[in-house]
Fold this protein.
Amino acid sequence: MESWDVLIIGAGPAALRSAISCADEGITPLLIDSSGIGSPSGYAPISGLAASIDEIDSKSHTKDTIEFGGEHTNPNSAGRICAEGVPILSELERWGLNFRRREGGLPLTNDIPGHSIPRLTGCGDSTVREITKLLEEQAIKRGIHRRADVLPIELVVDNFQIRGATVLNIQTGEIYSIQSKTIILATEGYQGLWSTINDGDGSGLALARNCGIKLEGMQKIPKHPLTVKGYNLHIPIDILGSGGRIRKENGEDVGFNEILSGESCVLDLREIDKNSRVWFTQTASRIKDRLGINIFKDVIPITFGIAKTTGGIPSDETGRAIFEGHTPEGLPGKLWLTGLYSAGRCSYNGMHGANILPGNLILDDLVSGREAGKNAAKWSKTTQFGGSKLLENSENSSRKKIEDLLSTKEGITVGQLSNKLTKIFTDLNGNFDSAVFESTNKSIQELKKDKIRIIDKSLAMNTELSSAIKLEGLIAIAETICISG
């Protein structure tokens, strides 16, 4: 049985930054993910990075974050993470990120709704892609071990302490266990409920939920206001800082509120200058290919959509995963599921509240990833490996689970079940109040009665099987949303 001090599950900026922190603490982690290496660089761009470049301190950034997120925002988390904006930006610059620049050489900042002053910076519509590539380079320099096409099936826990995980090698079909002192969950969110599994399967949340972690912060689902109507294509908010304008169909300039309230609006990018257009060629190409629209000559019909989600594994400032339990004295309290950390989109520290202030999502990825990696590495130096028998049992139960999936002869296909789930959530049409969630939960319970029938019965390279496992987790997350809502 192979053993690693730190096992990181994920592939995006939070996972990569966690791995870098581990290595800098003297611990070489293993980084695994069910997708291929480099796949996170293809994530849809949402916005750049928020940092208080032109401010004395981050107090105004914190204030804007709290006001934008509403009553669900944790002021302490907001203050702590906003204060890291400039240090994070400086680190990325030192590693070679090519920011948009202004006269004088400083990173260009954009004036974006929600921010009281220009604060959003980045690389146009390539910010996530460029940051991911940069972090991958840093991971390679540190000799960090990575494995693609490895799907986690189950976390192994012994008396509220992590002992490792059981995984499926998608290429070979092999099921095996990885013993580890600590695990960092740094996976994508669960926005795949509104589109496809590949857009965000929420696997980290599902793994934690199965360990008894009560997911939090899922009462509100943030809406992205620049979504191409009818196509689920998301346009980065940064484009508004380069001359883009939101308008009603009669030409009147409006803001986010009109879109979020359901009014018919268009995005007008015709006044963007040539120097700015080169930073949004990825967006122009995507819309040209899908709609046949030249975004710099024609207006784009837009609505709101679900591009990214918040809420998930409750975590403290060190990244430790927290659950409701009892102290040694028998008193109720928040306890650490020892050895389990979370970071990024699957983690919940309360920073974002009901809405994500533009630029805060990638900032939170990098800060939470850094802290989780640093603290997981330190903890791993103080503890020992254990749970060999439990890992062996987990392997056997995982094999049985997969055998049962493959042997089911009646039921519906993965695609059919996925389409049913997506329809349930898209039919909500942005209405996320408690009464709607109650009726939606009834639909989810009916959906759970459907058995999944897998057509491909092989183990090797069976992407249908891996999709089925992810889909089961996504359905469990859907149920959690409805209950918490």
